[in-house]
Structure formats: structure tokens, C-alpha cells
Amino acid sequence: MRKTLFGAGLVFLITIVCIYATARNDHEASFAFNFPSTIVFEEKLSAYKIFDGNPVDLTPNSNFKLVELSSVLFTDFAQKQRLVKVPKGSKIKGQDDGRVEYPDGSILVKTFFYYNDERKPELGKQIMETRLEIKENGVWNIASYLWNQAQTDASLAIDGFDKKVRWISAGGNSRSTLYHVPAQNECMSCHQSNSAISPIGPSLRNLNRMVERDGKKLNQIQHLQALGILSDFDTNQISQMVDYKDSSASLSERGRAYLDINCAHCHQPNGWKKSNQRNFDFRYETSLAQSGILHKREKISRTLRNGRMPYIGTTMIDEEGIRLVSDYLNSL
Asked: By three-state DSSP, how is residue 299 classified?
């Protein structure tokens, strides 16, 4: 009898493992992209000379310029630093539709980290990963680098990685998660437009905001133009995306901004085919009537509440963001 029960239990366990393995393989197979690459990524992040001094301080080299976005992607409450490098003598060009065109040799850098205690940043941070997008021969190449325990360098992580992280939130609550560094193909699922790799966040409307540099507040686009890395044009002709966390902005603008930066990279006509078949267009500039939002309000809210979206990049639910979107959808 014991052997029979043991055998049945073993069969059950093997069945569960097989189901899990099949589901995992199906999930990984859904990211089987074959985009061209035009560079070979260095094995160590330090080879790109992005930071000066102690790497954990994240002090940019003078060739890398700080950029900030009005609305940012939610990634398990991680903090982010964004940098851009443009080859000397070249400029980023603003496009009529709000996009930006980067010259060959451009590097976009996004570093994800957690303060040990968000109430006291001086107590240090835990850097999780740095993602690079490098443009060469007209093609964007993308990869992630996993930081070591000593916080002195990061190694190329083509296959992704899961790493436990703990921190104290701004509200004094202890939080933890199994942070997921995405595999290269996972990055490609979001960073694609018209079947090619493309940057997501730094549209002109999302860059068109006030920032503080050297103790002075100034328009970021004008600042980048003054640095000589962005083409000249009238900033008054560029629209602005609101910060979805800014309660002084309208609920409609905030709701659309959240859906744009967190969902529109996939849910739009030019996005990943697996997602754009849903007939949503969450881009900020798309009219409400054309967005598909009005007819699928409950489905959108339910999908976010269940943690099914975003598809990758999150293991925790953004409670505040979901409340915002729910309030916006209920107002329609």
C-alpha cells in the first residue's frame, strides 16, 4: 500500500513538473524573435566607461547626459537612472510626430536600483541591472547587465536572471520581491515597432518637462539643445505628457499617460503582433474614440488587477497605478 501511494505521488509530482516545464517552454517560445544585430556586446558593463569614480554612486561620465521622463514605466517600484550618449559631431533629431531619431553610435542607458531605505537615500542602494540600447548601422541592439554583489561592475545577462531584493518603502513598509532581469528576447517583445527594435520612453512629449541642472530649473529639451546633442526646433510646437503621479493634472491625462508608458509599447498598431491583435491603441496621442478603451473598460481594469499585465517586467502589482486607471475608466 505504501509503495502504491508513493508511486502515485511520484507520478503526480512528475506530471506537475512536466506541466510547469511545458508552460515555461511555451512562455519562452513566445519570445522567439530573430531581429538583426549589428554589434557584439561587451561582457562587462565597465567596458563602456559609463560611470566615473565608484560605480555604485552612478556618477555619469561627461560623455553621458542625464535625461528624465514625465511619466515612467512601473517596474516593481525600482528607481531608475537614464542616460544618453551621442557621438561627437552628431545630434538627435526631433521628428514631426514627436519621435526622436538617433544617429549611429548612440547609446541609451537605463539603470534599475533600490534604495535600502527610500526615506534615507544616504543609507545606500542596491543596483540590480543596467540595460543598454546601442544603435549601429541603422539598427538598435539591446541587452541587460546584471550587477555583482560588490556593486563594482555588471555582467552581460543574455538569458536573464532572478534576484531577491528587500527594501524599506517611503511609507516605512518592508518590501521584497524576486526581481526579474529580462532575457534579451523578452526585452525585444516590448522594444519593437514595425518589426524592428526601438526605444520606448524618450519621446519628445515625454522629455518636454522642467528639470533641475546645476541648481537651476530649465526646460529639458532646451537644455539638451544647449548641450549640442539635440537638433534645434521650437519647443512650443511640442506637446507634453503629464506625470501620471501629479494629482494637479486632470484624471483623463493621468490615466492616458499611465496606459501609454506602461502598455502602449505593445498595445498599438506598430507593436508586438501578439499584443496588437487585441485592437487597443493606448498611445497618448490617440483619440479616446480610436483607442479601444471605451468598449473594453472592465477587461482592462480586470487584467491590471489580476497582475496579468504588463506581460513581463513586473512581479508586484502597482496598487496606486491601478487605482488611477480604475478611477479614469470609471469616469468615462
From this structure: helix
Residues 168-195: what's their mean pLDDT? 82
pLDDT beyond 60 at 25: no
DSSP string, 170-186: TTS-EEEEEEEEPPHHH
Q: Report CA-CA distances (Å) from 224 to 24, 95, 98, 143, 166.
A: 43, 15, 16, 25, 36
The amino acid at residue 64 is: F
Secondary structure letter of residue 312 according to DSSP: S
Q: Which residues contact 307 (CB under 8 A, 6 or more apart)?
A: 314, 317
In a domain, 200, yes or no: yes
Interior angle at CA 129, CA 272 and CA 64, nearest 5: 90
Q: How far apart are CA 88 and CA 90, in angstroms?
A: 5
Residues 276 and 202 in one domain: no
CB atoms within 10 A of CB 8: 10
Whether residue 318 is found in the same domain as residue 186: no
Other C-beta atoms lying within 10 Å of the C-beta of residue 150 = 8
| Burial (CB count <10 Å: 0-12, 13-18, 19+), residue 20 | exposed
Query: What are the φ and ψ backbone dihedral angles of 125, each rounded to 5 degrees?
Result: -140, 165
Locate cell 545630434: which residue? 91
Cell, residue 33: 524573435
Q: 3-class DSSP state for residue 33?
A: coil
Domain boundary among 210, 237, 264: 237
Query: What total of structural domains would you count in the chain?
Result: 2
Kindly state whether residues 52 and 188 are assigned to the same domain. Answer: yes
| Structure-block grid coordinates of residue 307 | 497582475
What pLDDT, on the 0 to 100 scale, is given for residue 305?
82
Query: pLDDT tens across 63-114, in order?
Result: 999 999 999 999 999 999 999 999 999 999 987 767 899 999 999 999 999 9
How many angstroms separate the CA atoms of 328 and 322, rounded? Answer: 10
Query: Which residues form the domain of 295?
Result: 251-331
74 and 128 fall within a common domain: yes
| 268 found inside a domain | yes
In a domain? residue 242: no
